[in-house]
Specification:
Length: 504
């Protein structure tokens, strides 16, 4: 460990993992005066947000939809910098198109009048519902970010106690997301589109709390963006800022164990066998993986395993990265293909633990917004199909042949007039649930971490510090506030605040 002349109140900190959460924590902790070293097992930062460059095509590995740009602006501002000096954000508008097998289509946009017209085409009169939805979701959104999302609260009473009765009613946590959307829209397709993100939150919109209507609202109100160079442009910007601030990022340095003695962190054991003395460690490795595999304390690991088995997790995914050497007509940047049996797809995924019969999937053609992501005239296509967790009772997602998913995706694309065949795929990379687990250390291949059911939010979510091990903290998708790029960036700030509050 490098020596430090920093005051004892700002002891040096090791962060395991240079995902977006790890980088955010590194920046916030460094700004607060800590000396920070980040250990990353791969040869570059990014984690789930890393990238694949192949045959002239560039693909973002995981996240492709960037919303809430103010979160990233706030991160850079915390270090006295401007996001725009590091990352160029390109607007993506129209944002996301939804397609159903019968030919219905809904295109979302941040242009309010156009959005109203698009909704009215599905439900005459929906414009009035949209105006009411915007007012209600705006109030929910403000309330959530001002009072709930970014607060480190261990106690539900303290967490909710700051809300007035009126604000409490506003949260709609006792109503399902689908039911909440039904207050504003009658048309099932509009409700299905606005509720579809439930897939990535780890629950069906028929079960998730109504407060998540803020997701659709946040995207419509603040727009959808693509960093120039792909989402990885954001990773590079954050890594550059961290390095400028003096954070040491040590890539190709997998960690084998967090050493613990007498209930406190004592050091780190690297995969090459070396050990280093550390008293404060922040793990950006998926929290269940950290607790069940990295912590060098058998009793802690066993207790963690019992707990993890009871936690609801988000699904796994099959992802495909296709380089196509020609323009592909009929598909925009973001498209979500939903099945007729919407409810059945969620039931299959989350309750029956099997690949849904009418496979929902998502495609991203980032080169439509940033042509630099493909060779001239080429198209980079990303496909994501949700899958049950590895070792699900009926799932065996790892046993599904990716070729059969590719075929189903291509058939559905053709059904909607997108002229694409297997022969067009010049270069292909596929990540199965097993690869997501092994490459990124994701517990049972869960792509987005702990689910966002009501009792896995705020003070009920796994906390960002270890109960029973002094000096061990967590950052990233598995801890508050939750999954997704803006949330894990906020999680870095919350972990830094947690460490400061424990030092007081
Ligand atoms: C397929 C997919 C699509 C997604 N789409 C979106 C989207 O469109 N929009 C959005 O906002 N979010 C999306 N997300 C979610 C978002 O990507 C994640 O919430 C976020 O990137 C997680 O960041 P993190 O810092 O928590 O973890 P990670 O990115 O998992 O970072 C953990 C880091 O730890 C490193 N590590 C692991 N084990 C070790 C070890 N033993 N030693 C050292 N280092 C180690 C890993 O290599 C990695 O760099 C998507 C996720 C996936 C998987």
């Amino acid at each position: 460990m490098s020596s430090s002349n920093l005051p004892a109140s700002h002891p040096p900190i090791a962060i395991i993992g240079a995902g977006l959460g790890g980088l955010s924590a590194a920046i916030h902790l460094r700004v607060r005066g800590h000396e920070v070293t980040v250990f990353e097992k791969e040869d570059a930062p990014g984690g789930r947000a890393s990238r694949i460059v192949r045959d002239g095509f560039t693909f973002d590995v995981g996240p492709s939809l960037l919303n809430y740009p103010w979160v990233f602006e706030a991160l850079f501002a915390a270090a006295g910098k401007r996001l725009s000096d590091y990352v160029e954000l390109l607007p993506v508008d129209p944002s996301v198109a939804y397609q159903w097998p019968g030919g219905e289509r809904l295109e979302l946009t941040s242009q309010y009048d156009q959005l109203r017209a698009n909704l009215e085409a599905l439900e005459p009169g929906a414009g009035l519902g949209l105006a009411r939805f915007f007012r209600d979701a705006h109030a929910k959104y403000t309330l959530s970010f001002d009072k709930l999302v970014t607060r480190n609260a261990d106690n539900p009473l303290a967490w909710l106690g700051g809300l007035s009765f009126r604000e409490m009613l506003r949260t709609s946590v006792w109503r399902s997301l689908y039911g909440e959307l039904g207050r504003f829209f009658r048309n099932p397709r509009i409700r299905e589109a606005f509720g579809a993100y439930g897939m990535y939150l780890g629950g069906s919109p028929f079960d998730l709390p109504g407060i998540f209507s803020i997701l659709a609202y946040g995207e419509l109100a603040y727009g959808l963006w693509l960093p120039k160079g792909g989402v990885y442009g954001l990773v590079e910007g954050m890594a550059n800022l961290a390095k400028e601030l003096g954070v040491h990022i040590r890539c190709n340095t997998p960690m084998q164990a967090i050493q613990v003695k007498d209930g406190a962190v004592r050091g780190l054991k690297l995969a090459n066998g070396e050990t280093e003395d550390w008293r404060l460690v922040v793990s950006n490795v998926d929290a269940p993986t950290t607790n069940t595999q990295l912590v060098d304390d058998k009793a802690f690991r066993e207790a963690a395993q019992r707990k993890v088995d009871r936690i609801a997790m988000t699904p796994s995914v099959y992802t495909f990265y296709w380089g196509i050497q020609r323009p592909v007509e009929g598909i925009g940047h973001h498209t979500i293909f939903l099945p007729d049996d919407y409810r059945g797809a969620f039931t299959d995924l989350f309750k029956n633990g099997r690949l849904p019969a009418g496979l929902p999937f998502y495609t991203s053609v980032a080169s439509a917004t940033d042509p630099g992501l493909a060779p001239p005239n080429g198209t980079s296509v990303f496909v994501l199909a949700p899958a049950p967790l590895l070792n699900s009772e009926n799932g065996h997602a790892d046993a599904v042949d990716p070729g059969s998913i590719r075929e189903r995706v291509l058939t559905r694309l053709n059904h909607h007039g997108v002229d694409l065949s297997e022969a067009d795929i010049h270069t292909e990379t596929v990540y199965t649930p097993t690869e997501w687990r092994d490459r990124f250390g994701l517990y049972r291949g869960s792509a987005f971490g702990e689910a966002h059911t009501l009792f896995q939010m705020g003070p009920w979510r796994s906390p960002n510090y270890a109960r029973g091990i002094e000096g061990l903290y967590y950052v990233g998708a598995g801890v508050p506030p939750g999954t997704g790029m803006p949330m894990v960036v906020l999680s870095g700030q919350m972990t830094a605040e947690r460490i400061a509050s424990h030092a007081r």
